[in-house]
Design goal:
With 682 residues, the protein is mainly beta. The protein contains 10 helices and 38 strands. The longest helix is centred in the first third of the chain and has 17 residues, at 6-22.
């Protein structure tokens, strides 16, 4: 299968979906010209590959950089639907449980014609980044929590949830990577003495999760004293130069590393007193100041301790992302219970007229990790950045060169390489601008693009949900928190309202809920005055509210400043949970049945937007499904099972899966009912 021409590869990509759909049929019946042996091979990286995977503790997100290598093979140019790259993440906490599925994220990719940058180099590969939020298992700072993550990339199909060993699915076009990450610890030190004021604040915070801790402090009788007490409990220790010198003697961390900031300041000083002061400190720790200054002066682009490996962009969320590797267990100014040190990354973008623009600088905190593997630890840094200035319509693909500059413990100066760190360049594609040019415009409701919601308010086939682009079932309704997004940049500072109309009753209301937005990396409160909001820079979210209804709703946006209204769009709500009935004949819950006997009962599922239901049991010798429904199957009936001759008890379970998008981020995970059965000897 080697040395295939571009024409053969393109045909194989075009026919791949047909192969996936019909692979259960006899291969001779498939109308596919491609040699099927190509599809049966795994992890062909000719078109796409994983660059880096990592973890960002600020956003609590796993990230994966996807390198798109060719100008064709992605099922259409930018004005067409294109195709998707999906990455499923797994985590192993190294405590004996093995791999745990964390879900997947995807990004829309297209055929992007080849072009050259300002230096005549080909703008390929293009680096896209997907980000998957997850809630990690946190340990106290005395424990180095270093799980391993795995990412499986697959083109135009989602990797199987439990198939972390690539055994069951079709993984023709894709890649796999593993890496160790470091999860942030908690450092809150519970006092062994009573602080009733602090206890009251924490109680209030639990009872009022929408309030900020800072706001609760301000409401206290003595806010300054209470803040001081709380800061003492969460404050991390800062290691002095002498402490670090003592710690690092045995592990051979150089003085010009742990004394970097002091030495850098001395270089900028012209006074003899500054030299003498630092000389005394070095001498007290049996270190040679002059040798350290010489070593520091010769230092540039040193990647002994840290190194940037990837840089790309989050296509859907206007963010720049870089992944770096921490290479050594020591040399980062202290352990997890200390303040450690920072890795700074600056991002630069090259415009079409070959000028470089500084997008900004961000950082992550790193520490000495004594138990890290030889492969190191992988961290991601994320910089939200408004890319609207570079956007064009879909007929003009925008591919920019991006540069990232890494610098340890001090922000980079300009684009040149720092002393500790390196630089890396890549190319990113900017999503096309879809504004109609005049009216305020909705782009997404309930986590789904309005172009993927039918006029009846239900989702189209393979509609994508949320920032992770997970797949919704066709004809899904909406439930829970509804996030409304729209075009913002042309209207920043202007006023708007979000109107909701019940299509059945004709009754309307304006959304008045306050909400927090995080698009700029800093949490902001969006609070209306009455029912009027203000467009905030770089924030796509226009409103968040919870309708708690089963009605068909029409949602529209009104520009109060200009008096212009946008098009409205409908969503079908389904806030009523499935009604499940599960009954066991002759007694019901926890009744003693004979081992090896027959257990009978009835089940019923009532749900307007039902996807499927599963009736299962653990009363038999091996856990099994009594019934797994298909479309059109009756949603009620009788069951009969033969119980185990050895077990003392078990369960009969019924679980229903609605076709509803929940809280604008995911499909419904199902609702269950169970009955416990106790078995007695015959």
């Amino acid at each position: 299968m080697k040395n295939l021409t571009d024409k053969q590869l393109l045909l194989a990509r075009q026919e791949f979906k047909n192969y996936l759909v019909h692979k259960g049929a006899k291969l001779s019946k498939l109308k596919i010209k491609t040699d099927l042996k190509l599809y049966q091979n795994k992890l062909n990286t000719s078109f796409e590959a994983l660059g880096c995977i990592g973890y960002n503790s600020t956003y609590r997100e796993l990230t994966a950089t996807i390198q798109i290598k060719k100008a064709f093979g992605y099922l259409g140019e930018l004005c067409r639907k294109g195709s998707y790259e999906y990455v499923r993440f797994y985590i192993d906490y190294k405590k004996g449980q093995g791999w745990e599925d964390l879900g997947y994220a995807g990004v829309n990719v297209h055929d992007i014609p080849n072009a050259e940058d300002c230096d005549g180099a080909l703008k390929k590969p293009i680096d896209y980044v997907v980000r998957l939020p997850f809630t990690p298992k946190i340990e106290y700072c005395s424990v180095e929590n270093l799980p391993r993550i795995k990412a499986i990339l697959l083109w135009n199909a989602v990797p199987e949830a439990e198939d972390y060993n690539l055994e069951a699915g079709s993984y023709t076009w894709g890649d796999v990577k593993e890496a160790d990450i470091q999860l942030e610890p908690f450092i809150f030190k519970l006092p062994d003495f009573e602080i009733p004021e602090l206890a009251n604040v924490l109680d209030d915070l639990i009872l009022n999760p929408n309030l900020s801790l800072n706001g609760l402090f301000e409401a206290a009788p003595n806010p300054l004293a209470l803040k001081s007490t709380f800061n003492t409990l969460v404050k991390k220790e800062h290691f002095s130069f002498s402490q670090l010198a003592s710690c690092y003697k045995k592990v051979e961390v150089e003085p010009h590393r742990f004394g970097f900031q002091m030495l850098s300041k001395l270089e900028q000083s012209s006074t003899l007193s500054a030299y003498n002061t630092l000389h005394t400190i070095f001498k007290a720790n049996t270190l040679d100041l002059d040798q350290s200054l010489v070593a520091l002066s010769a230092l540039k682009c040193d990647t002994t301790y840290e190194e940037l490996l990837c840089v790309g962009a989050d296509y859907d969320n206007d963010a720049l992302v870089a992944t770096l590797k921490i290479k050594r267990p020591n040399g980062y100014s202290g352990n997890l219970c200390s303040s450690g040190s920072k890795e700074y990354v600056s991002f630069w973008l090259q415009t079409e007229n070959c000028e470089w623009i500084h997008a900004g600088t961000t950082s992550i905190r790193v520490h000495d990790i004594t138990k890290m593997s030889k492969d190191g630890l992988y961290y991601s840094v994320v910089l939200p950045y408004n890319l609207d200035a570079f956007k064009a319509n879909c007929k003009t693909p925008q591919v920019l060169k991006i540069k990232a500059v890494l610098s340890w413990n001090t922000p980079p100066e300009g684009m040149s390489c720092s002393r500790w760190g390196n630089t890396i360049e890549s190319y990113i594609q900017i999503a096309p601008y879809k504004w109609n040019g005049k009216l305020p415009q909705l782009t997404e409701i309930g986590g789904v693009a309005i172009s993927e919601i039918k006029p009846n308010g239900l989702t189209v086939f393979e509609a994508k949900i949320g920032d992770a682009n997970t797949i919704a079932l066709e004809d899904s309704a909406f439930q829970g928190r509804i996030v409304v997004k729209g075009i913002v940049t042309p209207f920043v500072g202007q006023k708007y309202r979000v109107k909701v109309t019940n299509e059945a009753t004709g009754v309307s209301f304006y959304v008045t809920d306050s909400f927090y937005v995080k698009g700029t990396g800093v949490t902001k409160l969006q609070k209306p005055v009455g029912d009027v909001y203000t467009y905030m820079a770089h924030e796509k979210v226009l409103a968040i509210f919870s309708p708690r209804t089963d009605a068909l709703l029409s949602i529209s946006i009104e520009n109060v400043t200009t008096g212009l209204n946008s098009n409205s769009h409908r969503i079908q709500m389904d806030s009523t949970p499935p009604k499940l009935e599960l009954a066991i004949d002759d007694g019901g819950n926890c009744t003693h049945y004979k081992k090896g006997g027959i257990i009978t009962g009835t089940y019923s599922v009532q749900e307007v937007h039902l996807s499927r239901f599963v009736l299962g049991t653990t009363v038999t010798d091996t856990p099994s499904e009594i019934k797994s429904s298909d479309a059109g199957d009756p949603t009620s009936g009788h069951f009969s099972i033969v119980s185990s001759k050895d077990l003392n008890c078990g369960k009969i379970t019924l679980r229903a899966y609605p076709r509803t998008v929940v809280n604008s981020i995911r499909m419904h995970s199902g609702t269950g009912a169970e009955r416990i059965v106790c078995l007695a000897d015959a």
